[in-house]
Design brief:
The chain contains 20 helices and 6 strands. It has 491 residues and is mainly α. The chain starts with a helix and ends in a 5-residue tail after the last helix.
Length: 491
């Protein structure tokens, strides 16, 4: 209910800027008050915004030519309250309290190595005389890594983990509903406000709407990555329900996974489809490893049924007879064209960026060029061509996520990041529960998607990495493992 209220307020404030400033201030005060009462409430709000907010601008405060997003405001509030409580504890106890950090210690040292290279990338940006504004805008997303401390302070036991997972699934299901409604609204020209809805989606950075063919529109939200992750967690829970022969639970997880799969199809994102293929391979492997061959075969044959149902549901949304849909479309042609076409503006620009980006990396492959490093390339984006007829575009933000990290942090920084992810995945696979395997699958999916889209250097990917590492570190805890063995209902 609060998520729906936040979305409606965001739409309303987008068209009344003065009211938007007031709402932003009131929200900041309310979130501060709630977080002061209990730090975990502030963390839950922060994560809910992360899951649904894409770029974090559902609400924003205009500061001249710049904007302060609600995501940054919540981050400031949570970090300030966490640090304030830390200092207050030190004053009260007359000794420096222990900073809650992810345990076991092996995670800590991997994080420490990555933090060193992030700091090195910041210093390197100044030493290379990169533009200060570019350095700040490039670096501020990486500040999300500091949330490892309040997350570790809050996520301590099974109840906290359960609360976090509830927020995750509620947010992912809301994203699904919002996606279905958006597709329905545009494919039926539902109301004259379709233009306003498009303006709100673009203005807040929630996503992109593109007419593909006839009455079919591509609805892409950056936050759809969480629906993709939720798909594989739901599939693992479906396999568990099949093994336990709990038909009602199996049906629920089948429908949830189908909803998330429908979202992935509607997004028309090649990066997500690659993540889907990679995740499916590892998901089936995980099911075989946990439950054996029988459940593996059941899930293997259920997935095509879910895919067919997802495609049928997508078709039903677009062709629903009331009101009159805009027009027809050829689904088979659309998907085959999307998979094979290389001349589209977005993908063409991405490939045109690759060679200049590789050349920039070669200038300092070991140490990198620091945050704020820019590359100039020829773009096919119509919006850029409107401003510069030759298409030449200079930017510090790149679609090639892992190459972006290599350019900014250098080879050792890139390796430290990959090793951290690998360590978390390996630790998760030692636990042998659907939750641990599902979280690990999410990291694998984000890592695969980041080859072509920037997630591991963005709060969406960083936030998920932090959540996964903290939960896995808690699940490794002998006390919590024993508790789960005694209470199979909380697995």
């Amino acid at each position: 209910m609060f998520i729906v209220l936040a979305e409606l307020l965001s739409i309303f404030t987008n068209f009344i800027p003065t009211f938007g400033q007031i709402i932003f201030g009131l929200l900041a005060l309310i979130i501060l008050s709630i977080t002061l009462v209990r730090l975990e409430y502030g963390v839950w709000i922060l994560l809910a915004e992360l899951f649904i907010g894409s770029k974090g601008y559902l609400f924003y405060l205009s500061l001249g030519d710049n904007q302060l997003s609600i995501r940054i405001a919540i981050w400031i509030i949570v970090m300030s309250v966490w640090f304030g409580k830390l200092v207050a504890g030190w004053i009260k106890d007359k000794k420096l309290p222990k900073i809650s950090a992810p345990k076991p210690a092996s995670f800590f040292y991997y994080y420490l190595a990555l933090f060193f290279f992030i700091l090195f990338g910041l210093v390197s940006g100044f030493l290379n005389h990169n533009n200060f504004k570019d350095i700040f805008l490039d670096f501020n997303g990486w500040l999300y890594f500091t949330l490892i401390f309040p997350l570790s302070a809050v996520i301590k036991d099974k109840e906290n983990i359960r609360s976090l997972l509830e927020i995750f699934f509620i947010s992912a299901l809301w994203l699904s509903f919002k996606t279905f409604f958006t597709l329905y609204a545009f494919s039926h020209n539902l109301m004259s406000s379709s233009l306003e809805l498009y303006q709100w989606i673009r203005q807040t950075g929630v996503g992109e709407i593109t007419q593909v063919q006839g009455g079919f529109y591509r609805v892409f939200f950056q936050s759809h990555v969480f629906a993709l992750i939720g798909l594989f967690i739901a599939m693992l829970l479906l396999a568990e329900s099949l093994k336990d022969k709990t038909k009602k639970r199996a049906l629920v997880y089948f429908l949830i996974s189908t909803a998330f799969l429908t979202v992935t199809l509607i997004s028309f994102s090649r990066s997500f489809w690659i993540g889907l293929a990679v995740g499916l391979i590892f998901c089936l492997f995980s099911i075989y490893k946990i439950y054996g061959g029988r459940e593996f075969l059941k899930t293997f044959f259920i997935f095509p049924a879910s895919l067919i149902l997802a495609a049928a549901f997508m078709f039903a949304i677009v062709k629903f007879p009331f009101p009159q849909p805009l027009g027809g479309f050829d689904a088979a042609f659309l998907f085959s064209q999307r998979l094979s076409e290389g001349g589209e503006a977005a993908i063409s620009s991405r490939w045109q960026l690759l060679r200049p980006l590789e050349s920039a990396i070669k200038k300092s492959p070991i140490w990198g060029q620091g945050f704020g490093s820019t590359v100039t390339y020829k773009s096919s984006d119509p919006r850029i061509l409107e401003q510069t007829p030759d298409g030449l575009y200079t930017t510090y933000a790149f679609e090639w996520g892992w190459l972006d990290i290599w350019l900014k942090l250098g080879l050792f920084g890139l390796i430290s990041y990959l090793v951290l992810i690998f360590k978390i995945i390996i630790s998760a696979y030692k636990i042998k529960t659907p939750l641990a395997y599902g979280l690990a699958l999410g990291l694998i999916v984000i890592s695969a998607v980041s080859f072509f889209s920037p997630y591991t250097n963005h709060p969406l990917g960083i936030g998920y990495l932090l959540i996964t590492s903290v939960i896995i570190s808690r699940l490794i805890s002998p006390r919590l493992v024993a508790n789960i063995q005694e209470r199979p209902d909380i697995k």
